[in-house]
Write a structure and sequence with these properties.
Elements (H helix, E strand, L loop, with lengths): L1 H14 L11 E3 L2 H10 L7 E2 L14 H9 L2 E4 L9 H5 L6 E4 L27 H18 L4 H26 L7 E5 L3 H7 L3 E6 L8 H14 L3 E4 L5 H8 L5 E4 L12 H21 L1
Parallel strand pairs: 1-2, 1-3, 3-4, 5-6, 5-7, 7-8
Helix pairs in contact: 2-5, 2-10, 5-6, 6-10, 8-9
This protein binds zinc ion (ZN).
Length: about 290
């Protein structure tokens, strides 16, 4: 009996990895907000690699050679999915079969909305801007990582539970922050905020463009100018990578103030906090501009 026990113990020692749980899997994530959620789930285990460099729009992007190599070596790839990151469709198709590819737009429990009226068909891909969706994605991320890397399964689960509680707290804070500006009309540059507006019952009266990578037509500009005046928009929100000249044309002869919204969290350092910073900054930018213009 003792001998058998010792033999088993010795065998276990031989196969035991040097570090508790062993090496983390190589994980690649497509955009900053999803990277933040994955980083939160992987805390204390490893760091995911962020594909889309901060500042670039996922709507119009090519893959850099260094990123292509990272992708080829990945054990797990988290991306949002084709409606947002068309540039990844082909590279993902050619990955080795062992790679686990997870389109988070397919996460269980996700609330999906169509794009704003008259702005295309299908699904609005900016799903992370509703904390309820972020929570659903955290669940999907933890389940995937635990399946691929069972030795760290308990760590992933514990991290996910903590992250979800933190996101619930964020959601409550944002609701409080935005309560004062709920009925104040505004226009956004790119149709990215449907989920945020739906969650916090905001009064957006339109978006200038569906795709920030494409030029805006003169007719569209005229249409938005009309809406700005008719709807009495208090603010027009641009984005960090957006051309300021067009905003000037839009707001000329109107009383609207100009604010900046950043749906990707470009200014944040990559990591779990980036999601919280992105969401809080969105809420405070909206609130500051609308309250000042009221
Ligand atoms: Zn977008």
């Amino acid at each position: 009996m003792h001998m058998l026990f010792l033999a088993i113990a010795a065998a276990m020692l031989l196969v035991a990895p040097a570090r508790a749980g062993g090496e983390p899997p190589s994980v690649v994530v497509s955009i900053p907000p999803l990277h933040a959620l994955v980083a939160g789930v992987m805390e204390g285990v490893g760091q995911p690699y962020l594909l889309v460099p901060a500042g670039a729009s996922p709507h119009a992007l090519g893959l850099r050679p260094a990123d292509a190599r990272r992708l080829e070596l990945a054990r797990v790839v988290f991306w949002l999915g084709e409606p947002l990151e068309a540039f990844l469709v082909r590279p993902l198709r050619t990955l080795p079969r062992e790679a686990e590819i997870v389109a988070l737009i397919e996460a269980e429990g996700l609330i999906l909305l169509p794009p704003r009226d008259g702005m295309g068909s299908g699904i609005d891909p900016h799903v992370w801007l509703d904390p309820v969706n972020a929570i659903a994605m955290v669940g999907a991320i933890a389940r995937t990582l635990s399946r691929v890397d069972p030795p760290h399964g308990r760590r992933y689960d514990a991290n996910a539970t903590r992250l979800i509680a933190r996101i619930e707290g964020l959601d409550r804070n944002l609701a409080t922050l935005l309560a004062a500006v709920r009925r104040l009309p505004y226009v956004v540059f790119h149709d990215a905020y449907g989920y945020f507006e739906n969650r916090y019952e905001l009064a957006s009266i339109g978006a200038v463009t569906l795709d920030p990578g494409r030029a805006v037509s003169a007719r569209r500009v005229a249409d938005i100018r009309q809406r700005l005046r008719d709807g009495g928009a208090l603010c027009v929100f641009t984005e960090p990578q957006f051309e300021p000249r067009l905003i000037a044309t839009l707001t000329e002869d109107t009383a609207a103030r100009v604010g900046v919204l950043d749906p990707l969290g470009i200014g944040s350092r990559p990591g779990a906090d980036a999601y919280f910073e992105l969401m809080t900054r969105l809420a405070t930018s909206l609130r500051d501009c609308l309250l000042a213009a009221r």
